[in-house]
Amino acid sequence: MWFRNARVFRFTKPFEITAEVLEEKLQEDTFKPCGPQETARHGWVPPLGKHGEQLVHSANGYHLITLRKEEKLLPGAVVKELVTERVEAIEIEQARKVRKKEKDEIKEQVLLEMLPQAFSKNRRSYAYLAPQDGVLVVDAGSAKQAEDLASTLRKSLGSLPVRPPVVEQAPTFTFTGWLNETIDLPSTLTLGDECELKDTSEDGGVVRCKGLDLQGDEIRNHLNAGMQVTKLSVTWDDNVSFVLDEELGIRRLKFGETLQEKMDDVDTDDAAARFDAAFSLMTLELAQLIPGLLEALGGEDRSAIVDAA
Q1: Largest pairwise CA distance in the chain
Q2: Which residues, in sequence order, are bridge partners of residue 283?
Q3: pLDDT one-digit tens code per residue, 1-29
Q4: Using an 8 Å Cβ cutoff, are 74 and 35 in contact?
Q5: Which of 37, 169, 210, 245 is the most buried (most CB within 10 A)?
Q6: Strands 228-236 and 189-198
Q7: 280 half-sphere exposure, CB direction, 13 A CA radius
Q8: Closest by alpha carbon to 55, among 159, 6, 121, 126?
């Protein structure tokens, strides 16, 4: 159970929830497959899959949940071809032009007819709530996917006071400062060999670099030309590597040998036990990384956060 990405949401006020209450709330919105005429559905499923029945997997106060989304896939080219055939048939038989409104109605009818035979695409999104740390962490490669899960969770719980964390200075300013050495790189971070730079002008371009010395002359020339760093690969505490973007999205997470060695020490072949051990190790590591990373980026702006009394 290792997240590949981490989109962090900060609780804006104290939010305590037990695993039992969370389980009860999610049970009301469990996943059900799409009906014959439905294009998409989503709902909560057990994180352990076939190895568990509970919708909430808890360890050390962290609550893991899983959202499953099913979408019906209809090939656009096939739909277009069928619509064109029906439009042409009407125009020939009735000797008249089919207008846009009628074409849209024909397309709608074609979609309804094809849905029962459509292929289904299923995706599972994982997240965990950490009330003691004041965060919700979603394994999502995009902000939209993370927001979709948070929105669904808010609907299930009735309330979810979260927002993405805000730092005191723009991440692009800090990234750029690290590379041009106007801002000291924290001792907990090591630069990788990838970055993305953007020209700040209205029609500015984008340069993506990989396999380079990020503090070398080639990158420095782009920075001297006024480009800003918007993505950066780093390693945290010599143990977790990832790509960090200007929205504070953490992508392509790779946990290092230390955690893998700890997993190797878990002396069991039981899938559920190994899942639990991996989840515990991952959450404990991220519990240190997230606040440390926010501090490295200039400190978190907590002006909109209500702390516990």
Answers
A1: 77
A2: none
A3: 799 999 999 999 988 899 999 999 999 99
A4: no
A5: 245
A6: antiparallel
A7: 12
A8: 126
Q: Domain check: are 37 and 159 in the same one?
A: yes
Please report the sign of the dihedral spanned by the C-alpha atoms of residue 161, residue 163, residue 165, residue 166: negative
Cα→Cα distances 80→84, 101, 161, Å: 6, 15, 43
Is 82 within a domain? yes
**CA 206, CA 200: separation in Å to the nearest integer?**
10
With H, G, I as helix, E, B as strand and everything else as coil, classify residue 164. Answer: coil
Q: What are phi and psi of 11, to 5 degrees?
A: -70, 130
φ and ψ at residue 145, rounded to 5 degrees: -60, -40
Q: State the Cα–Cα distance between residues 174 and 216, nearest whole angstrom.
A: 17
Q: How crowded is the C-beta side of 57, counted as CA atoms within 13 Å? A: 26
Distance, C-alpha 47 to centroid of its chain? 16
Locate tokens 């993505």: which residue? 231
Name the β-bridge partners of 167: 300
Q: Judge if 180 and 267 occupy the same domain.
A: yes
The one-letter amino acid code at 263 reads M
Q: Residue 211: how many CB atoms within 10 A of its CB? A: 7
How would you list the strands of the sheet with 240-245, edge to edge? 206-210, 189-198, 228-236, 240-245, 250-255
User: Domain span at residue 101?
Assistant: 76-116
- Rounded Cα distance between 251 and 141, Å, is 6
pTM for the model stands at 0.86
pLDDT in tens, 238-286: 889 999 999 999 999 999 888 888 888 887 778 888 899 999 999 999 9
176 and 260 inside one domain: yes
Single-letter code of the amino acid located at 84: T
